[in-house]
Every structure is written in C-alpha cells, then in structure tokens.
UniProtKB/TrEMBL annotation:
Coiled coil: none
Lineage of the species this protein comes from: Bacteria, Pseudomonadati, Bacteroidota, Flavobacteriia, Flavobacteriales
Lineage: superkingdom: Bacteria
Molecular function in Gene Ontology: alanine dehydrogenase activity; nucleotide binding
Protein name: Alanine dehydrogenase
GO cellular component: plasma membrane
Residues the record lists as binding substrate: 15, 75
NCBIfam families, sorted: alaDH
Alanine dehydrogenase/pyridine nucleotide transhydrogenase NAD(H)-binding domain mapped to chain residues: 149-297
Domain Alanine dehydrogenase/pyridine nucleotide transhydrogenase N-terminal: 4-137
CDD domains attached to this UniProt entry: L-AlaDH (cd05305)
Catalysed reactions listed for this entry: L-alanine + NAD(+) + H2O = pyruvate + NH4(+) + NADH + H(+)
C-alpha cells in the first residue's frame, strides 16, 4: 500500500503522524511511504531521518495526498486539506467529528474512509489510541493551570504546592478517566489538595486505592460541583463520552460563584468541551477571561510537547497502521473488532452511531 504522511498545518501543531522508526517498519513490510518535506521537523525528526529508512520525500501536501492510498495524520484535516482527500482514500487520524459539523459534512462529501483514533476501542472499553495523548494532556493540564494561576497572567496568584505555613492550592478534577487520573497525579505531586469527581464508583475506588491521602474522591453531581467550585483554585474538565459531545458540567452562571482568578482547563475541548463557556483556543492565544475566570481551552494540548507526543502516539498507532496497510481497511476492520470501532465515515455514510446522533444524521 502507498501511505502518506503530510505536514500538520493546524495552528501550532508540531506533531507528525509517523516517526522514522514507524516508516522503517512500514517499508520493511513492503509498503511505500510518502513524507512531506519538513513534516517531522517540529517533533525533532528531519528529512534525512526519513530518507535513510527509505521514505519518498515530496515537497507539497498535494503530492502526498495524490500518491497515497492511506493518509496517516495527527489532527483532523482543516479546510484547505478537504479538496486533497480522494474518494476511497483511508484517512487515519484524530477526527473528533462531534465538535465540528463542517468537518463531518466535508468528509461525507469526500467519499473517503475516515478511521478515528479516538474511537478505536478494545473489548474492555479502553481507547488505546486516545490513551497516550490523554496521558500527555492530563499532565499538561496541571502544568498549564499552575502557570495561569500566576497573577501577572490574571490568575488568582496561588502556588499549587503552597509553602510551610501556607496551605496548598486546591484542584478540582471532573472525571476519573485517563486524563483525570494523570492530572490528579501531577497536582498531587506538586503538593496540591485534589478533589476528583466521577459517576463511576469503580473508577473512584481505583483512584482512592492508588492516590495519596491528599487526593480525595466524591461522586459527581451538580450539587457537589457547585459546592466545590466556590473554594477550588484550578478546575480541570476531563470528561469523555467516546465519539459524542462532552456534557456541560459547568454552566455560565456557575462562574459567578468562583473566586476571581480561578483557572479552568477544559481537556474535553476536542469533543465540544465540558464547560458551557468553552471556546476552542490555540497555543498562540491559549486563554480568555469570562467573569474574572481564566479559561484555557487549547484544542491540541499535546502539540506543545511534540517530541514526547509523537513518540507516544506512534507507539500505539503503528500496529493499526500495519494492519490496515497489510490487509486493506475492509479485511482489517472485519478481522479486528477494536479497529472496526474506529470507522466513523465510509464513502459518504456515517457508520458510527454516536456521531449520527450528534448531528441527527440518519
């Protein structure tokens, strides 16, 4: 199969869909790989690294798309890429269709095969291709939140770890999935007091078993959320419903109950966000303020640490890319149920139930 790796062009997205090591494995399996020049530069991988393992380097994205049966990316195609996608072409990437009707319609019209990393699902319900980026985003949420709590950036002026004689900052984590647990781990490591809410008691029991005593768990309800937002300094939105829009757990009216300078980080922004006031931002302009509450809603948080993120992503995507390349998408999705869950759009038809329900497509 001919596989293409274009350069990512979303704002401040420096990751790349495949490392040179991944390209090496594909070529070893007798596939041809086209890599756009400088595609890996932002992640610390250079054209010579790809050339030495046998990749064919081409100057433009148009040439990558034109020559390839399958496109391997990181982020969803943007408007200028829509016309490049061919009928019957496999596009394997993070799509997060539920947050963009425009993207959904464009991919329907392209008649391509859209396989979304974020909905590939194993029998135990885990999401293997979302997990590493969730781990990165969860850890980054605390790193960024701690920074934006600083007063010069309009935060409350709280040091999360506190100092002797001064209590630590308080972090509220909504959701005890991969993102939430990684966020809680990082916040706890800094010495903050952490409260983590979820409706899944199994997850809460797990958190209670593995976290230190200054991480406490509570069942998630609107009552408990309203109670905690009044005295927490940093709020992390870490709720995920695979393939569907995130629920709005913090509404606009709740902002007035928070301390001025409270920071909210919405890691669910790719799925529409779990704050009613969420608007997707970029690394270039990451924050905005509503009712004196700082919102950080960057839609590609792991893109800020592309070397780490690209390596972590290729570790998990490469086995699936090989299955698709070796067998073709039909045989691969028939043989591997986890990969079949990744099918969202096939030649002009939505085949993922939650996506069809999001936009009321029949």
């Amino acid at each position: 199969m001919k596989i293409g790796v274009p350069k990512e062009i979303k704002n401040n997205e420096s990751r790349v869909g495949m490392t040179p090591a991944g390209v090496f494995e594909l070529i070893k399996n007798n596939h041809t790989v086209y890599v756009q020049q400088d595609a890996g530069f932002g992640s610390g991988f250079f054209d010579t690294d790809y050339a030495v393992v046998g990749a064919i380097l081409v100057p433009t994205a148009a040439e990558v798309y034109a020559n390839s049966d399958m496109i391997v990316k990181v982020k969803e195609p943007v408007a200028e890429e829509y016309p490049l996608i061919k009928k019957g072409q496999i596009v394997f990437t993070y799509f997060h269709f539920a947050s963009s009707e425009e993207l959904t319609i464009a991919m329907l019209e392209s008649k391509s095969i859209c396989i979304a990393y974020e909905t590939v699902e194993e029998t135990d319900g885990s999401l293997p291709l979302l997990t590493p980026m969730s781990e990165v985003a969860g850890r980054m949420a605390i790193q960024q939140g701690a920074k934006y709590l600083e007063k010069p950036i309009k935060g409350r002026g709280v040091l999360l770890g506190g100092v002797p004689g001064v209590p630590p900052g308080k972090v509220l984590v909504l959701g005890a999935g991969i993102v939430g647990i990684q966020a809680a781990k990082m916040a706890a490591g800094l010495g903050a007091h952490v409260t983590i809410l979820d409706i899944n008691m199994k997850r809460l029991r797990y958190v209670n078993d593995v976290m230190p005593s200054h991480v406490v768990t509570e069942f998630s309800s609107e009552y408990n959320i309203r109670r905690h937002i009044k005295n927490h300094d940093l709020i992390i939105g870490a709720v995920l419903i695979p393939g569907a829009k995130a629920p709005k757990l913090i509404t606009r009216d709740m902002l007035k109950e928070m301390h001025p300078g409270t920071v909210m980080v919405d890691v669910a922004v790719d799925q529409g966000g779990c704050f009613e006031t969420t608007v997707a931002t970029t690394h270039e302009n990451p924050t905005y303020i509503i009712d004196d509450v700082v919102h950080y809603c960057v839609a590609n948080m792991p893109g800020a640490v592309p070397y780490t993120s690209t390596l972590a992503l290729t570790n998990v995507t490469l086995p699936y890319v090989l299955k698709l390349a070796n067998l073709g998408w039909k045989a691969a999705t028939e043989r591997y149920p986890d990969l079949s869950k990744g099918l969202n759009i096939v030649e002009g038809e939505i085949v993922y139930k939650e996506l069809a329900e999001t936009f009321n497509f029949s």
